[in-house]
Amino acid sequence: MVCKHPDIQEKIAQEVREATNLKDNSSIDELADNLTEETLSKMQYLVAALTETSRLYPAVPLNAKVCSSDDTWPDGFSVKKGDIVGYHAYGMGRMKYIWGDDAEEFRPERWLDENGLVQQESSFKLIVFSAGPRICVGKEFAYREMMIFSAVLLGSYILKLRDENKVANYRTKFTHHIDGGLYVQASPRFANASSLRRYMP
For the chain, how many structural domains are there in total? Predict the structure, then answer.
């Protein structure tokens, strides 16, 4: 998404540099060393962009739950104990009924209030981490991991798709996979940006 929307990529990079209070000639190591709880809490636009990406491309596109007891839903539909109820997080993230007429647009601003702070939606609306008593216990850890990795990459590198015309096709499995991978070129944002290899497994 940030490759397809370079203006958003730049906005995130600027926020990262401002939050860490680093100069443009700071190295990637200095940037990584300055990612604290305090600096990460200032990266509201980054959180919004990650949330918007998760809405459109949830890591787990399909999921299901087993009813532990008979129940009647608010709309009057009844389920029985043992019934399996499936839901399609990928499809729900694109439903105009839920998200409005711009549901298929990548727009991080939908997650920000008038002060530029992240406003969370109900987890039953944004179902990518499940909801209620079955919400993912690793949700906060996942956000921290995504934020740190994204801040280091976007704060230090300009990312572009190797082939801007190639369409990313997905293979639906338990988790979302891009068929054939997604090839991206990373160019140092500043002269002092060191090798990416140090941060890659």
Answer: 1
